[in-house]
Amino acid sequence: MHPLAALFICLAINMAAFFPAYIWQTDRLTDICYALTFVAVAAYGLAKSGATAANLTVFTMICLWAVRLGGFLFIRVHTLGADSRFDAIRTDFLKFGAFWLLQGFTVWMMMLPGTLFFANRVKRVPLLAFIGIALWLAGLLMETVADWQKYQFITNPANSGKWIDIGLWRYSRHPNYFGEILVWLGIYIYTWFGLSLTQSLVGLLSPLLISLLLLFVSGIPLLEKKADKRHGDNPQYRSYKAKTNVLIPWPPG
Prior knowledge:
Elements: H1 3-24, H2 30-49, H3 53-80, H4 93-110, H5 112-119, H6 130-154, H7 175-192, H8 197-203, H9 205-217, H10 220-231, H11 235-243
C-alpha cells in the first residue's frame, strides 16, 4: 500500500463528509468520519497486502480502537448536541473546510506505521512485538474506562457545575489522553518490527503527532483553559489541580 494512496483515501473521505457537514451545519459527522477514515485505510491496506497474521493483528488493533472511539463520540455528540470546538468556524466555508482537510491529513500521518507495515507485506513478527499489543490494550482499556466515567459524570444532573475527580480522574486530569497516547505507541512498537530503519523513523511521526496534539495543541491546553475559566476561583478545584498529575495517572500528591 503506497502512502500516497492512503493520503488520497484520507482526504477524499473527509472532503466528501465536509460538504454535507457545512450545508447542514452539523457536527454529527466529524468524529464518526474521523474514525471511519482509519478503518478505510486499514481495510485497503489489508486488502492490498494480504491477510497474514501480522497484517490482521495491525488491522484489528486499528479497527477496535476506531470503533470504540467512533461509537463513543457518536453517542456523545448526539447526547450533548453541537461541538463547541467548531462554534467559531462552522459557518465559514474556508475555515471549516481547512479543518476537514487537516483532519484527513492527521489520520494519514497517524496511520503511517500501519500503512508502511502493510506495504511491506509482513508475514510474522517476533515475540517482542507483543509488547506493542500490551501497551495498545492497556491504552484502549484506560481511555474506554476514563471516557465512560466522564460521560456518566457529566450527564448526571447532580454533577452540574462540578469537575470530575473520581475513578481514573482522581489520579490524572486527562487519563483518556494518556490512554490514547499508549494506543498509538503500542501500534508503532508492534509495526516497528516489520519496518526498515528509514520507515521506522517516518512511522515515529504517528505517536509523536498524537502526543504533541494532545499535550500542546487541541487537547490538554484547551480543556485546562476551559476548566480554569469555569472553576479557577474554587479553592477545591485549585487543590485538585495542584495534587493531580496532568497526564500520567499517579496517586494524588
